[in-house]
Amino acid sequence: xxxxxxxxxxxxxxxxxxxxxxxxxxSVYRCPGPPILYTDQITPQExxxxxxxxxxxxPVTIVQTPKPAPARANAPAATTARTGGEGSKVDPNAQKQRxxxxxxxxxxxxxxxxxxxxxxxxxxxxxxxxxxxGERNYQRYADRVAEMRSAITRKEEDIAAIxxxxxxxx
Length: 170
Prior knowledge:
By secondary structure, the protein is mainly alpha-helical.
């Protein structure tokens, strides 16, 4: 009895997962992409305007994916740092911890970027870095100096952005 009941339940649920064949009453079109579009939702004139081809003789299968489950209202406390209630907010202690962690990361990033900037400026040597072996051609040297100058500018902009972000957190 249990097996027949179980089989009945499976048979009742199975048709929802079966692929469905597009209706044969309308034409199915393949429209150029990217991305390539297969549709039966346009008129023949729209298909002509979009340079779509009619697909004939080949069945088109439409597979419906299951809908995602709705979010649970009573999520366990271990997975969220929220307090209960309608329109709830982040737990203040958890938020302080996150803010502190973010500030530490930004400060470490700032220190690392300032160190790298100091290295770049030392190597740049006020616009007259030492020539390297492969720079017998002056243009190669000039290109490297220009690249160094732009790298220093980018690094200074990065440092300024980090400082602005740290100022926002105060």
